[in-house]
Amino acid sequence: MNGKLFGSSGVRGLANVEVTPSLAAEIGAAVATCSKPLKVVVGRDTRTSSAMLEDAAVAGLLSGGADAWQLGIVPTPVLAFLTKRLKADAGIMITASHNPPQYNGLKIFNADGMAYAMKSQDKVEETIRKKKFKRIDWADLGESQRADENRLYAEAVCRKTKLSRKWHVVVDPGCGATYSLAPHILKGLGCRVTSLNAQADGFFPARSPEPNMESLKPLAKVVKCLGADVGVAYDGDGDRAAFIDEKGNFADFDRTLAAYAAHVAEQNAGAVIVTNVEASMSIEKMVAQHHGKVVRTRVGDVYVSEEIKKRKAVFGGEPCGAWIHPQLHYCPDGILTSALLLKTLEDEDTELSEFVVQAPVYPTIRKNVACKNTHKHRIMKQLGDSLRSAFPEHKETSDVDGVRLTLEEGWILVRASGTEPLIRLTVEGESLRTANNIMEKGTLLVKKLVKE
Ligand code: MG
Questions:
Q1: What is the CATH number for 52?
Q2: Domain ends where: 86, 117, 148?
Q3: Per-residue pLDDT tens over the stretch 293-305
Q4: pTM score of the predicted model
């Protein structure tokens, strides 16, 4: 692979082209080398390439003297939870999350069950680049063993969530890593469960591993036809959840996040809620009703998790369905999200459609301005000051991820694309007219800087 190996979601790329068994073995060996771990838990999603990469990563770990506990197919949050619960020194998850089936990747967790931060990732990356692996003498190689500890996770979720209503839930794991555990846990919570696509299949024949309005159309139909109370779907590795309401409509990500954040803020006076720079201002409006505070981070669940821990926040989430509940752990967790959302609906004595419409919805506009990759750095450097003087009325400014200005009646975010020769602008406004005005001003400014 060219450039940096690790991104905000670990290593990701085309299976057996970019993410090869040799690379997985090197990552395993580097993890064993860097943190001197004695015990590492390893899990994988249902992709066709996952077993191959798992075996390679395990070989690398053993060669570095670490013992490997192989959990088989597990959702990412279960791997993260068990890393801490089984007192492992690290965890490795083989997955490409919501990406298409031909992709795969590796994500590393520390003993606390938190995804490796940049510093730890850089250490692993440097070990691989310099090929400075610790190679253990034949007599002291690590040992591997299979382990099935899912029940520890299931028990923990059931302890955190007690439901009294018998919800009829249609669950759609999409042939991904939650295929057996999600229906099992929802049944354990007393729900009446109808399962769709609840078999492991690395070709993801039923729908894309990314749950969204388009890919969940069949689930929406089933919920409506059966008259079920709610539909829930997960991404390929089960750290994201998406919902269908009792009327068969897709529950908008931003509004569901904002409504749930408001519920959490109501339960916890003065609570801090964390989200990323792209989420709708709906979350601020909802949380403010209960005197809570919203903190925004860079896009990527790792950043949201770190901020939750740092600020002792009570909840955090991104508007793609990745929600983090620190009462159990710091990894986004789809199954726990669905259990807690049902509990919230029970507490508020409401149905999902009514719950979601409590959160306001605002017009969002996105626009791209072409910009050579070589100019991006200069433009983004100049942009902050130019944008602030173009919008002197701004209430808040942030540069955690691009430049974001909070305005009286909306906000603007300008980021350089990580992969394409583009500068991306996102605007949200109280009305479409306001959003258009903000976007027009922002676009003119960026175009002017690109020309200079
Ligand atoms: Mg995922």
A1: 3.40.120.10
A2: 148
A3: 999 999 999 999 9
A4: 0.95
